[in-house]
Amino acid sequence: MDPVIFTTLAVVAKMLLLLAVTLGVVPIMVWFERRGAGWFQGRPGPNRVGPFGLLQPLADVIKFFFKEDWTPRNADKFWYWVAPIIALVAPLAAISVIPFGSHIVIGDQVVQMQLADVDAGVIFILAFAGLEVYPVILAGWASNNKYTVLGALRGSAQVVSYEISMGLALLSMLLFYGTFNMNEMVTWQDRSLWGMIPAWGAFFNPFAAMVFWISIFAETNRLPFDLPEGESEIVAGYHLEYGAFKFAAFFMAEYVAMIMAAALMVIVFFGGYGFLPGMQTMLEIATQQFGLGSAGIQNVTALLQFTSIASKVAFVMFVFVWVRWTLPRFRFDQLMDLGWKWLFPLSLVNLVYSAWLTWFMAN
Fold this sequence. Notes:
With about 375 residues, the protein is mainly alpha-helical. The chain is about 70% helix and about 5% strand. The chain has one domain (about 65-105, about 115-360). Strand 1 (about 105) and strand 2 (about 110) form a beta hairpin. Helix 11 crosses helix 13. It is globular and about 65 Å long.
């Protein structure tokens, strides 16, 4: 096949696969979050529609498609419609630079397991993640409702406050890696300390990992930092006036942003698609049992790499659910105090420590 045609087909296939997997995870996470609530709080959760309630997300999707789609009379209609589109597109664009493995071999062609191999991948993700504050502001303002405006103000203040600490935590790790390329970050972590501990970023700089983990809860508006929604105070916050598929777009955007944030955390702090313990042995056994050639070994390696990063992302997503049903919502002043009085100054101290440690290791 002509290389240009093959490359074009590979890009289209990766785009469709990325959309299918990412959006397909959303109903699974919705189901798991409801079941998780039941487990943590001693109640059943969804258990009527299908076995174990597995078809409940499908019923919800059908409901969203057939509900009346209306626009408030006093809303700014253009921005009211644009807000949920930006909310969903921004995290999907950010996921496009996440590497989910090295590469696979098809015939004599090599296909990267990454939609867009961008050298400045971290900057690309931060640029699109930074857009997430705009749909919150636009939805709140365009809805022309006092509760939506309050939610938008809370959301913008929250995202801006925690972006600083998150950026400083990432910067401290970039000092170690010396690159913005995420594949190179994974390669840097693909070794061990003292022959037994993985050289993951979380082991080199656990404080940065903790700050980043806290910050992504605030960036994705998840409990205990879901102040922009705050049902007990401002009804539903910035998306109060949304219904039908527009509300579903906001709903999907939250989970896609969770996947994106979890994948970025795994790449930077938990070895990315590097093998989990035991996977190297599995590769060796498969090679011996099936007599794999170089292409076969690479393809099995890529499959194990995808399994590794998917498992790590799934664990981070589980923690999202765990925290939601364990901790109560913070007050807004507590949220701001944590961000500005604790995480920000401690992140600065951690940055200085990381710079010193990087210099010490280099010398």
